[in-house]
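Blackboard transcription, Thursday session:
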Amino acid sequence: MITPTVSLGTDAATAAVAPRAAVRGLTHLTALLLAVLVVGAGLVVFDRGAQQFAGDNLQRMVLANRGALHVRKDSSATLLREAFSRPDVLVLMGSSELNTVDYYRPGRFFASAPTGFMVFPLGHAGTDTLVMLEHIAAVASSVRGKKVAISVSAPWMFQRIVNPDQYHGNFYMENAAALVFSADFSMDLKRDAAQAMLDYPKTLEKNLPVQLGAQWLAAGDPLHLALYYLLFPLGQLQNVVFRLQDDWETMRWMRALRSPGHPEDAPSAPIDWSSEIAHGDRLARKRSDNNPYGIDNDAWRREYEKDTKLWHKQWTDKGFKEMVDQAQEWQNLDLLLRSLRELGAEPLVLNMPMPGKWWDGIGVTTDGRQYYYDKLQRLVAPYHVPLYQFQHYEYDNYFMHDPMAHLSEKGWAVYDQILDAFYHKRLP
Amino acid sequence: MIKSLTLFITSASHNPSVRTVALTLFYLAILLGLIVLYGRGDFSTPKFIYQGF
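(Written on the board underneath:)
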C-alpha cells in the first residue's frame, strides 16, 4: 500500500509559522503593556503618597528647621506644591533676607501658626525673580487662586544682569523644564521667559529637550514654534519623571529630619504688634552699636566700614537712575507678576527701603531713591496688587540689618504684621 | 523530582496565560530595574559666590 506523503511547500510552511510568530509577538506586546500599566499605576500611587507625606509632615518640617532655609526645602517642588495647597500656609518668596536674622523671621515667627497660619519661606541667597518664576512654574496648578508674598531686594533692580554664578547656584532643571514645557501659561509668557532663561545658556546645556525647547520658544517664528510643539509631549513626559524624582528625594530628606521641639518663644494670639515691633527695635539696636548707620556690628566690621569709606560720594543720582533703568530684573519681575496673574493668584509685593543715611553718604539722595520706588510702583500698578515699600522707614537706622536688602529684627516684625494682615484680608 | 518539575514547567510554558504572566513579570523587572538604576534625580546646584543679596 502506497502511503501518500504530502510535503508542504515553502509558502504553506511560512503560512503555518507566521501565525505562531504573530501570536508570540502579541503575547510580548500584551505583557509589556501590562507591565507598563502596573508600573504607571504604582507611580501614580507613589506620587499621591509622597504628596500626602509632605502634607502630614509640613509643620514638623517647619518646626524642625524653625522655618530656617534649607537648600533641599527650596528645591523641592513636592513641598512647595503642598505649601500652596494648604489653606493654613502662606508662601513668602524672597532671597537672602529670609535667613539673615533669626528672631522675627516669618518662618520662625509663624512656625506654630499663632494666628492660624504658617509662613513657608522660599528662597535663599541669590534667589532672583526669574528663579521665583521657575519655582512657580513647577507647581503652577497649585498656585491658582492662592495668596503669595514676594519680597523684592533693591540691589537686584540696579544691576544690569544678575551675576550668572548667582543664578546658577539657584537654578533647578526641574523648575526650568516645568516653565519651558508648561501647559499652564500662555505662549507669550513662555516665550518671554525663555528669552530671559537664555541669558544664562550654560544652565540649559545639560538637558537637550529643555535647551531646544527654550531656543525654539524664544525664536518665536512659525517653524520653530512647530518644532516646539513636536517636542512638547517629550518635555511633558520629562516633567513627569522630574516630579517623581523630586517626590523620592523629598521623602528621603523629610524622613531624616530630627523631631522638633515646640518653639519656646512662640507668640500667642492676639499679637500685640506694637510691642513686638518695639522688641524688634531693641534687638536691632543691641547688635548694631559700633557705627552711626545702625548696620549690624559684624557686617560693619566685615564689610561696610571699608565700603562706606570707599564709596563715600562716589555715586550720583544720575548714575544710579541709569543703573536702575538698565537692570534686567524689571522684566523678570514683570514676568513673575504676569505668571501670577495668569494663574489667578493674589500676590503681595514687599519692597525693602534703602537706608537713607547710608545712601545719602555714598551719593544717592532721596531723589535717586524715589526714582527707584516710583519705577517699582509703575511696574506693579497695572496688576492691581498691594505694594508696600516702607519708605517712611528710610531714616530709621534699625529697620535694616545693612544697606543691601537685609531686614533687621525690627524690619521683620513690621513685615510680619503686614503678612498677618494680608493672610487675614486686613491690609491697611 | 527534578524531572517532574521540568515536565511541569514545560507544560506550563505552553499555557498562554502562564506565558503572559511570566513575560509581564519579566518586563516588570526590567522596568523596575531601570527605575532603580536611573531613577534618582540630581538636585544639586553649583556653589556660587554670595554677593550680599
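Lecturer's comment: Chain A touches chain B through 41 residues (CB under 8 Å).
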